[in-house]
Structure formats: C-alpha cells, structure tokens
Amino acid sequence: MNLTARRPRSHGSVEAALGDAAERPAVRYEARHIKKAFGGALALDDVSVTFQPGEIHTLCGENGAGKSTLLKVMAGIHQPDAGEILLGGEPQQALTPRAAQLHGIYLVPQEPTLMSTLSALENLFVGILPRGRLPFAVDWKRMERSAGEFFAQVGLEVDPREPASALSIAQQQLLECARALAHRCNIIFFDEPTSPLTAREADVLFALMRQLRERDFTVGFISHRLDEVLEISDRITVLRDARVVTELEHHEATREKLVSAMVGHDIAVRQRRHRNLSSAETVLEVQALSEPARFSDVSFAVRRGEVLGLAGLVGSGRTEIAEAIFGLRPASGSVILAGKPLSHRSPASLIDAGLIYLSEDRGRNGIFAEVDLERNITAAIVPRLPRHGPLLRPGTEYEIAEQASQRTRVVARSLSASIKSLSGGNQQRAMFSRWLLAEPKVAIFDEPTRGVDVGAKDDIYEIIDEISDTGVAVLMISSELDELVFLCDRVLAIYEGRVVAEVVGDDITLTRLGTLIVGVRDP
Amino acid sequence: MSGIASPVEHQVIPAQPRRRDSRRSAALRLARRREPLLVVMTLAVFFLTTALEPSFDTSGNINFMLESAMPLAVLAVGQTMVCLVRGIDVSVAPILGIAAVSTGFLAQDDGSSYVLMLPLALAIGAGLGLVNGLFVTYARIPPIITTLGTLSVYGGIELSLVGSSAVQTLPNSYATLNTGTILPDISYLLVIGVVVMILAALFLWRTTIGRALYAVGNNVEAAFRAGIRVNAVLVSAYALTGLIAGLAGLVYLVYYRGAEGGSGITENLNLLSIAAVLIGGTTLTGGKGGVVGPFLASIFITVADEAVLVAGVNPDWQPAGVGVLLLLAIMLDRNQSGRRSLREVLLARHPKLPLTPPSEATP
Question: Which residue of B has its CA nearest to A348?
C-alpha cells in the first residue's frame, strides 16, 4: 500500500511517519566524553559509549551510576555539559527530544508517558497526525489502517480506540515501541522496561527486541536483572559512579564479572563496629506486612540499639515497606512497637508512640522550603513545646531548635534563614535535628545521605552510631552498599518485594550484598 | 530536652548568630515586608488628598475612615486563614450577610444585646465555614469551586431570611458601639478590629494549630509526615474563616446600623477581602504571610476609595480601581512565589490521605 502516492499534498513528516523505519540508513550512534552534572553532583563523567546497529547494547550499574542520564542525554532530554554526540559520525548540536526523534532516536521511558485519556491510535500518531483532503482535517481512516500494521509489528492486540489508560503497563510499553516505529525511529532505547513487568510480559518484550535487532535496528537497554541482561545482550557496558568501568561482549560476560564491576572494590574507610546485641530487647516487630504488587510477607524484628539495614535496588520495595510501617501506605500485616500492636497507623500517632521516618525525598516531602530553619526543626514536636496557657513560648522554642541544630552540626547564618537557602547537607542535618527532637525509640532513615556532601555524610554516620549507642533502634535504607556494610549490625536483602536473605555481622560485605540485591540466591 | 546522645564536642559551630548582625538583618527584613509599605502608602494617599481638599483632614474624618474599614478588615483577617493553607473562600460575603441579618433581626425585634449576639454570630459563621471545609477536605473539591457553590447557596439563605424587610432599627446599645469612643478619636469599632487582629496574630504564631496552617500551606506532604493532622487543620481553617466572617457580620451590623438582603455581597466584600489579603502580602500559594498586612491593606483600600471620591471621580469607577489593585497584587504574588503557579493552587484538590506516593524511580 503506497500511501505517499495517494496523498501528495500532505506534509513531510507525516509521510515520513507512515513509511518504513527500515528505510532509514542504519548507522552507529556514539556518545563521546560526555560530562553531565546536576547541581554539584556529577551524573556522567567522561563517558563514551557506542551503540551499533543490529546490536542489543545493555547499560548496567547500581542506582545512580548514570545509566538513565546517559540515555536521556542521547535522546535529547538532557543537554550534556561537555562532550559530543555523533550520529553516523556527524556531531549533533543541542539535541532536543523532537530533533532526536526526527533523526530516528526514541527513548521508551521507565514509566510510559502516554496521554492517558487519548485513544491508543492517537497516542501512536500524536505529533504526526496524518491529514486528509481538507486542510487541518485528520484522516482517521488512514490512521486506523496503518495503526494495525504497527500494532502487529510489536505484537500489540488491543482495540485502537481504547484510551491509553485502559491498557496494562506492558501494553503501554508496547504502544511506546509502536510509536517509535510509527515515528520511523530505528535507534530505540529502553530505560529499565522490565521492572514493572511479569516474567511472561518481559519475554514478549525481549522477543520484540530481538526482532528489532534482526531488522538492523540499534537497541539500547537498561536493566538491573542480571539474568536477563546476560541472556539478551550482545554488548554490556558497566557504569559506576558516573564513569564507564568496563565493556563486555556477550561471550565474555559472566555474573561474577558484572557484580564486581558494578560494586567496585573500594575499601570502606570506616571500620564496622562489633557489638553484641543478642540480649537487648526487641523494640519493633513487623509481621507479614504485605501490599499487593509492591511487597509481600515481610517480617522482621529490630532490637534496642541495633542498626538493621534494608538492602535492595530502587523499586525493590524497600521504601514502600518503610512507608507502610509509617502509615503512609495501606498494607496488611502487623507492626508491634515496644510490645504494643499499632493497628491504625498514621504519622501523627506513630511519632507520639516513638517511631519516626526520615523520608528519602527531602525536597518533596521533608522540608518546608519557604519556612525558616527554626520552625523546620521543631515541626514534628510543636504540640510538645513548652507554653503559657494556650500560647507557645517563643524564646524557648528558639533555644530548643538551637540546641538541636548544634547537636547535628547544622551550619547556617541564623535560625531565621529559610531552609531552602542551605546546602543539601545542612538541610539533611536539619532534618535529623527535627527527628531527633521527637526522641524516637525507633528511627527509620531512608537514604539518609542522598544528595549531601562528604562532610555531612560523615556527620550523619556519627549521628547514627551515637543514637544507636543510646538505645534507639535504627532501620536504615540505602542504595550505597558501603554504608550498610559499616553501619549495620544486620542487613536484610530485599528483592522484588520479598526479604530474600538475612546477613549478620562480618558476613556483611559489599560483594555479598551486591549479589543478593540483584536476585542471586544464596549458594 | 533530649534523652538521646550528648552533643558532639570536638567541633565548634557558630550557630548563635551575632547580635549586631541579627539586628541589622531584622531591620532589613522589616524594610522588605509589606506592612511598613502599606502604612507609608496609606499616609501618602491621605496627605495627597488633604493637599487637594483640606476638609479631608479632620480628625472626625480620620476616625470615620478607620471605622468604615473595620467590616472589611475583620473579614480580611478571616480570609487570611484559608489563604495560608492554599485555599480561598469566596463565600465570606454571604456568611457575613447571614450573621448580620440574623443577629440584626433578633436585636431589632427582641432587643437582644450584642453580648448575646456575639456567640450567635460566631456560631453561624463557624458552622457555614465548617461546611466549606468539609467539602474541600473530604469531598476534595477545589476550594474555589466549593466556595463558589456555597456563595450561591448562602446568598440564597441570606435573601430568604430577609424576605422583603430589612434590619433598620437597632437598640441604643448598638448605636453606642458605633458612635462611642474610648479615647477621643479612637472608636470602639477600631478597638474591636485591632483586638481581633492581635488575637488572630497570636493564634497564628503561637498556637499549635496556627503553626500547622503554615506547615500545611507550605508542603502538605511534609506536614502529614511530620505528624500534623492535615485534614483536621484544613477543616479548622475554613471553620475559622467562617467564624471570623460571622464576627465581621456583627461589626457590619453595628457600623451600618442595619442590614438587608445582599449585605456583604452588594459591597463587593468577597473580592475586597481577597484583594486585601493579597495586597497585605499574604500569598494565595500558601504558607506565607500573616494578618497584620491584610488588616492594614483593608484600611489602605478604604482610604484610597474615599480619596478617589473626594477627588471627584465618578463613584461608578470604584470597583474598577479595586480590580486594578487586585491584579497588581496577584502579579506581585506570582513573582514572589515562583514555585507554584496560581492555577495549580486555585484549581488544586486536597490530596487524598494517607498519601500513597508512586513507586520510586531511578534518578
């Protein structure tokens, strides 16, 4: 069916869209010496990677290694601070998402970003709706005809008139692929597509990826699941701390090589502490905590003064478990604090009972950005502040906030400065002040050192050591495995919503944790 | 205070701000605030008009203008409460009206004293405000839509209460409140207004729930996680706005010595109270501001209004003047709080609690 001949009046990109992506010349796509920083933090440091046509090329690395950032730079979503992007040897200047698509580059994002109220059909062609005889009139019939073809190519069997919101996540991802094909793209990147999919759905996606490879497409892929990485990749590039560590071809890649490249062999500077807590009483007990599709049957206990780590990949359910304990998510199962079962959990009642939760996203749900430091620090204990009759005593509040800020070494011009004027490290120190003022029995720290400088990291480690010495039970979630190694007395490995292993004392090593969190069973 | 670890001793941190620095920055902060600017602007309008028309400057007239600002000033103090939690209440005018006519009829027909009418006005206002709060919080209807709805409903109630009559004669005690002065030139009404403002300011800064209003307005999610009972706080904010609007109804009754169907609405008090809040430096984007600014802004609006009349401008233009002021204030508001657009705020629903955040994504 030659649509182009029938509709000579239509506009360029429209016709391009309805042609075959394979008509585009297959060329290699390179990133050379790319640098990219967000705020002060380097996300990519001198990264060079080449994607070849007819290859499935996988990026591996721990959370924050820079994989997603690299794909986003190559899809025009982020602009690199330095370095070049070359398409078939031609440097691409100031790439935008639209320019990238016109060059045949498409990024299937981690979470599909379809227009949920529009039909699958419109989602497929949005931006390149084919026109009919009348100017501005959309040619629906033609769209429906060609949509069938693209849907068939990706193996998507849905009614094109269904709204995108009616599709499952897996179907939405296939629709994203179909959209890439409709836009005549032949370089397709998949950013962790399999994490929301079941094994069978993932197989469908892998079949599609292989089929694209056969057609000489360039396929980029990110995944944390080492089994599937080893199975499907022609080439694997491992990133760690914003740099490329190694590049392996299919035949030379092994699980051991990947894990050691991802984790690295940096020796933790801090020494782990050896403490005997076997006689300490249990403060927090979690029994059979479950939330459908997030985590299931999570049970553990924390003793007084113990630091228990939760190790897992982003998306493994670590944060969801903590949020469920703190009453932010509905979950079945029970939580027992100091012998008392907590049935209707809410942050307010839990803080009163002695359990606090430092969230992983300080900017979104931790700080009150426009409010001064003093009030940010006292926010969780306002009802407990001293007062005259019904009125708070302002002087004492200042003193309390000041003492708390000294204890966590907040450095600020004054307590009346707004918290958003502080560095990430000082904001986090202030969050610790807030939560320590609540005098917790159990403290949950979720990524306590995310987005803070090295000095603040050390202070935070000291604080965690100190409070656990005074008997506070700490539940610590971190993507930085070395933190778990030197801070924790015990670590639970979480994989896909389940506790898969418990590691105690000197058995807690980088390699052990690095292996467990990617789903490799204990030998 | 702390039952946890002792402070780390080996590092000295200058957390205690040096006195002189803090004093200078306090002066700077004051200069950047809206309140002194409003005082200066009000005085400027006053002296300019006096220069044009010397009769403007008699102490009786000053007193008259301050008095005539009080219904609006009290209403604006009330409006501030919901604005602090990123809300808005466009039903305050009929709440004021209902409180004014119901207490007015009781006073007119039975000679009830204002001491008895005060709790009634407060209860009416709080009740109507509570309804707004429940809709916004639990039905999760955006504040502007909720209160647009209740604006019509409450307006209808007000009209049906009045029928074809009006409150025209009040007991003498009410007249004394209107004309009486504490010191020469300082009327009871002004004192009432100032007392309401001071109580509201103390409430906001030095009570648990007042402080919670700022936290919720600034970041609902962080507030919830910090153990603030967000839903209760939101409902209270609307109830409180209603309560103060009820009080403003009584002030209105005393000041105008009567009330009728459409009281509050005909004076455009809805828009004026929002204008006063914004001009007073309290943002619609929540978490920022106080009651002193809106109070002073009400006086400024009233004085400017009066000055325009004295200058011989056709009074038909008065609403247009307020409209321009309001637009200017909204522009200022937007510049100050770049983080959230007004549309996001006005049409935002209260989130469902407990918040179930989306699963985490790779950075």
Answer: B227
Q: Which parts of chain B sit beneath pLDDT 70?
A: 1-32, 59, 332-347, 353-363
What is the ipTM for the molecules in this complex? 0.80
Q: Is A252 on the interface with B (CB under 8 A)?
A: no
Interchain CB contact of A364 with B (< 8 Å): yes
* Residue that is written with structure tokens 């004021």 in the block: B96
Q: Is the pLDDT score of A265 beyond 80? A: no
In Å, what is the CA distance from A225 to each residue of A205, A239, A294, A520, B263? 14, 15, 17, 9, 69
Is there a contact between B354 and A328 if contact means CB atoms under 8 Å apart?
yes
Helix/strand/coil for B321: helix
* Cα gap A354→A346, rounded to integer Å: 12
Angle at A333 between CA A332 and CA A334, to 5 degrees: 130
At residue A394, the pLDDT reads 77
> Distance between CA atoms of A463 and A253, rounded to whole angstroms?
41
Mean pLDDT of A108-117: 78
Band of residue A18 on the pLDDT scale cut at 50, 70, 90: very low
The CA distance from B305 to B259, in Å, is 22
Residue A77 is given by DSSP the state S
**d(CA B323, nearest CA chain A) in Å:** 29
For A27-51, b/e burial (b = at least 16 CB within 10 A) is: bebbbeebbbeeeeebbbbebebbb
The pLDDT tens digits of the residues spanning B240-268 come to 999 999 999 999 999 999 999 889 998 88
Question: β-pairing, A218-222 with A187-190?
Answer: parallel
| Element (DSSP H or E) covering residue A514 | helix A510-517
By the 8 A CB rule, do A398 and A416 touch? Answer: no
Q: What are the structure tokens assigned to A487, written together?
A: 């801070």
Residue spans per domain, chain B: 58-347
Res B358: pLDDT: 43
CATH number of B58-347: 1.10.3470
d(C-alpha B174, C-alpha A215), whole Å? 90
- Give strand pairing partners of A239: A244
Burial of A389 (0-12, 13-18, 19+ CB in 10 A): exposed
